[in-house]
Amino acid sequence: MRARLNRLIEVLQTNFWFVPLIMLSLSGALAIALLAVDQRYDPGVSSNLGWAYSGGPEGARSLLSTIAGSMITAASVTFSLASVALSIASQQYGSRVLRNFMRDKITQILLGTFVSTFLYSVLVVRAIRGTSEAAGFVPAISITVGIVLSVFSLVLLVYFIHHVSASIQASHIVNVIAEDLEQAIPRLYPSQSGTPAPDSADDRFRQSSGTTLRSQKTGYLQSLDLDQLLDIASDLDTVIELLPAPGDHLVQDDPIARLWGASNPDEETTARITNAFLIGGERTPLQDIRYQFQQLTDVVIRALSPGINDPFTAVNGIDKIAGGVAVLSKRPRVSERRSDKDGTLRLLVSPPDLSCVLRETVSHIAVYASADHFVMASLRRVLDVAERNHQGAKEQQVILELREQLDRLQHRASAPHV
């Protein structure tokens, strides 16, 4: 349940409509509440307030109509600027970074402010009655609040122009991805579910026959509901081995889990297990730490392409990768054996490790950067950071293999072509 809730929150955060819809609802409620206040008090009370609107019905209608029209125009300009920013970011840095623009709270709040002010003005203007100040009804407090909202919208528009120009800069994009990476590492899959089981945990379950469950559809494994799988394993008194990891691509009928020490599960149990695997059309950063590193890798590789040829942005991205590797390598390794609350081994998972991250970043970038000594030196610095904090012979072996790959690629690039 927690995995599905986190997925829902992720979807809502990366949509342009959610925050504006909430603000739209609040503006409607605000208009109704303030109109009720204006109708309750005598018009003379409002006129005695120095800060309240003091004009007649015709002037109030004209003012609110102008505000409403201006807000729709400003909203269209904002949407156009946001579209231009998305287009530039997609072409320069890859489509994966669009998620960072889609969840940008400044853009969402600005769009919400414009449409909210428009709705507020429409609701207030329809409450104005009459044509003369003596016989008509002019909601002075409501109109004054509309003026304040329009001024606030203007301030946000000026700030948004600055924000857009800053958000498409390479350094800003790289910093945003790096900040997301540092925040995601403490939530490493599967550290928040179950408790680590010791390596000496009973492995006799492997002596029994296992039942393999297969994927019901094709797509990327976005996240796993490990709490649900722990409950299922406890109910069946079995051990569930998860074969893919979040971020892996699955094809229909690919094996996704193996049940050890249990008879063939019924259809209901099989459905409960397969429903714990959230599969979608794209990768998400919920439990996939590799996704964050891949975003930085995409920025680096695009910066090294002949069409862009920006090695300084590439080095900037590699420096952020080095920072992420430093944070990741210093953390205790996440146990792949997870126990239930009674301390009984229930899950076997495949957590991401430092070796996997290094292969998918350093090894991938080196293929495109072999002719640039400046960039290759930055890649070696990433390996230096990993080597200072490596844990175990496996990670040390991967670091040595990557150093040999860098030397081999650089030698091949510098060799004279006949």
Description:
It is a single chain. By secondary structure, the protein is of the alpha+beta class. It has three domains: 2-168, no CATH class; 195-280, Alpha-Beta Complex (Aldehyde Oxidoreductase, domain 3), CATH 3.90.1170.30; 289-332 and 352-414, no CATH class. It is 61% helix and 9% strand. It is built from 15 helices and nine strands. The protein has helices at 2-13, 18-40, 43-47, 57-93, 98-102, 105-125, 140-167, 170-184, 226-236, 267-275, 289-303, 311-330, 354-369, 373-388, 393-414; strands at residues 195-196, 210-214, 219-224, 239-242, 249-250, 255-260, 277-280, 337-339, 345-348. The strands form two sheets. Strands 1-8-9-4-6-2 form a six-stranded mixed sheet, with helices on one face. The protein has a three-stranded antiparallel sheet with strand order 5-3-7. α8 runs parallel beside α12 and α11 packs antiparallel against α12. The termini are far apart. The model has no long low-confidence stretch (mean pLDDT 84).
Characteristics of this structure?
Aldehyde Oxidoreductase, domain 3, six-stranded mixed sheet, three-stranded antiparallel sheet, 15 helices, 9 strands, alpha+beta, 418 residues, 3 domains
